[in-house]
Automatic annotation (TrEMBL):
Keywords: Hydrolase, Metal-binding. This is Phosphotriesterase. The modification N6-carboxylysine is found at K140. It comes from the Bacteria. Belongs to the metallo-dependent hydrolases superfamily. Phosphotriesterase family.
Length: 313
């Protein structure tokens, strides 16, 4: 099987925690993962160990990985100030996120500190994208389960405002892989964000080929993440989903990520860890689709999705 293979964005840069890099230098990328994460929804499974995070990055690098997009947003223990040292020590580019997650992921203290309206949230996002020694390179927000609640709509509007101010890409957590079209209606239809600047996560959890094709036709990126989670339709439906998109000519809309969200999912726990993306899935991708589409998904697409013509400070 073959799919359309396109190049990377020119005249733009990927904003990493060590500074902006040309898209062509990003390399093989885990397009959705977490080095640090703390949420009341996952008690006792916090990702808060810098040593374990470095081990994950080094393992990923040993398998040929060169970049990781960390989607942990504001208020969830992302330890942003520690990311540059981890990037230097591992040799892996790290793209950090600003933004906010679903309301359920915040304790009362974080809820009290969170700006109450979209304009306030957008100002926070823009500040984290453009100022300080460790700048975010993307915005992460979230939809709801088969719909959008008030917090989701406020967050999406804030993400759109921040995008229009900076050009930053917008990654969206889709709860259970659902409400993809609702998200695009709000971000792109109501608020004018170009679909090609939107990355929709967890689509593998709802393996609806019709929805996937409509998302690809709109121009958004489809992020298939969380491999080897037996309770989700991930690995065992992944290749069906990818084949449908590749055969329809949408290989250039696909991204892959590990989405490690718990300590037990790391290689030091019971899970395959970040390197499974390359040790486990990449050989199968090459066998099924060939070298060029695999390189498209793991290297070219992330560079294009994350590249931004950042405004001059």
């Amino acid at each position: 099987m073959t799919g359309a293979v396109s190049g990377t964005v020119t005249g733009a840069a990927v904003r990493t925690v060590l500074g902006d890099v040309p898209p062509g230098e990003l390399g093989v990328c885990d397009a959705h993962d977490h080095l640090f994460l703390r949420t009341p929804s996952l008690p006792g499974q916090e990702l808060d160990d810098p040593g374990a995070a470095l081990d994950e990055l080094r393992g990923f690098a040993a398998s040929g990985g060169q970049a990781v997009a960390q989607w942990t947003p504001w208020g969830l223990g992302r330890r942003r100030e520690e990311l540059p040292a981890l990037s230097r020590a591992s040799g892996v580019h790290v793209v950090a996120a600003t933004g906010v997650h679903r309301w359920a992921h915040y304790d009362q203290d974080a809820r009290d500190r969170m700006p109450e309206d979209a304009d306030g949230l957008a100002a926070l996002f823009v500040t984290e994208l453009t100022r300080g020694p460790v700048r975010a390179g993307m915005i992460k927000v979230a939809g709801g389960f088969h719909g959008l609640d008030d917090h989701a709509r406020r967050s999406l509007r804030a993400a759109a405002l921040a995008h229009h101010a900076t050009g930053a890409p917008v990654g969206v957590h889709l709860e259970g892989g659902t409400a993809a079209l609702d998200v695009l209606d709000v971000l792109c239809g109501e608020h004018g964000v170009p679909a090609r600047r939107v990355l929709l996560g967890h689509l593998g959890r709802s393996p609806d080929a019709g929805i996937h094709r409509r998302v690809a036709e709109a121009g958004a990126y489809l992020v298939f993440d969380g491999p080897s989670r037996a309770h989700h339709a991930t690995d065992w439906r992944l290749f069906d989903c990818l084949a449908a998109l590749v055969e329809a000519g949408y290989a250039d809309r696909v991204l892959l990520g590990g989405d490690t969200t718990t300590a037990s999912a790391r290689a030091s726990g019971d899970g395959p860890g970040m390197r499974f993306l390359l040790d486990g899935l990449r050989p199968r991708l090459i066998r099924v689709f060939g070298d060029a589409p695999t390189d498209q998904v793991l290297r070219l697409n992330p560079a294009q999705a994350l590249a931004t013509p950042w405004p001059t400070p």
